[in-house]
Amino acid sequence: MASSRSNTAARAVTSSARRMTRVSSPVVQPGDTYRDRILRGDCVEQLKSLPTASVDLVFADPPYNLQLEGALNRPDQSLVDAVDDDWDKFSSFADYDAFTKAWLTEVQRVMKPNATLWVIGSYHNIFRVGAIMQDLGFWILNDVIWRKANPMPNFRGRRFTNAHETMIWASRNAASKSYTFHYDALKAANEDTQVRSDWYLPLCTGGERLKDSKGSKVHPTQKPEQLLARVILSSSNPGDVILDPFFGTGTTGATAKRLGRHFIGIERDDSYAKAAEARIAKVTPLDDHALALAPTKRSEPRVPFSSVIEAGHIKPGDHLVDSQKRYRALVKADGSLTIGPVSGSIHKIGALVQGLPACNGWSFWHIERSGALQSIDHFRTEIRKTLPQD
Ligand SMILES: C[S@@+](CC[C@H](N)C(=O)[O-])C[C@H]1O[C@@H](n2cnc3c(N)ncnc32)[C@H](O)[C@@H]1O
């Protein structure tokens, strides 16, 4: 893959030369929904045709600006299939930055107030992209590392194996607090453990990789659907509109369709856009039952701790302990807990004894039953079962 930067005239192409390779765009009629379509042409121009505040999620896989130094061979002298396409070439960092700022500005405009943006990149471009995002006011929520299970080796043996890409996940601005993030569902599907920001997934290979009639890859950087599925499932809802301004082979569109979301793709290379259309046409969406999120604790009806006492599961005068029996609190008739001179809610007393700013008392406190510890959350679940369902 790439090594150091070089700006030789032979390899560099100017913005105007890049523009010449673009294909003409379809006429987008006012009132078009734009949904589930691939807009052909330059993304900055096409983004301008989209209504303000109209998309729920953006996934962008922009040019890497790889700065390749000539052909790269394996030890057996076979040629490495690196990204050397025109769409990845910029005359200078300034040229790349200007392009990045232009598309990010338009993306920010078309995002709904609580939409979020994912941008994937490598060390060649992600730091520049991240800085420009911050300059434009995007609010970075995470940088997620895609750790590649099967990375390409470093053939020259002069560097570490480049085994990951970085995804920056950001909200539209610092004030966008109500963005979609399915924290509980992700945790439930992950052995009840918070999902971490490093994702171990293979490259796109095998049957998923689009090949032409000669068996060559249709696109040099087709992303794995598993990666897009994690992005889409974590930060969007069924029915949402997901924009991808660098659509390539349509990995975002194919995954969005399978997961019951809409997509808007933008791609300037007609052959990629056609491959994407054919790919997406073959996708069958999962049915609603398969897509419905399991009810999460946050979406379930609120149950005050006093209801557990009213229902007789725990009595005033009982004692609650933490899972390691380090702390012991007295249950009072009004549903509060007492330790020494201090009284408060299950959450407040749980936080206090641990010296933490906050605590989920439902998972922290337990009661001894038949020689074993029972989480008090068990009783909340029992009470919820008795509540009327919507
Ligand atoms: C890194 S690839 C995206 C690959 C895609 N995620 C996939 O899974 O197939 C970037 C794509 O953006 C397209 N592209 C580059 N510059 C563009 C521009 N200014 N406007 C629209 N598309 C562009 C390229 O043709 C290329 O297909």
Helix-strand category: alpha/beta
What portion of residues belong to β-strands?
Answer: 15-25%
- Most strands sheet: 8 strands, mixed
Strand order of the largest sheet: 1-8-7-2-3-5-4-6
Name the ligand types. Answer: S-adenosylmethionine
Distance between the ends: 55 Å
Order of helices and strands: HEHEHEHEEHEHEHEHHHEEEEHHEEH
Contiguous helical run count: 13
Task: Return Rg in Å.
Answer: 26 Å
Helix content: 25-40%
Key terms:
about 400 residues; alpha/beta; 8-stranded mixed beta sheet; 4-stranded antiparallel beta sheet; 13 helices; 14 strands; disordered N terminus; binds S-adenosylmethionine
Structure in words:
The protein is an alpha/beta fold. 28% of the residues lie in helices and 19% in strands. The longest helix has 18 residues, at 93-110. The chain is elongated. S-adenosylmethionine binds next to strand 8.
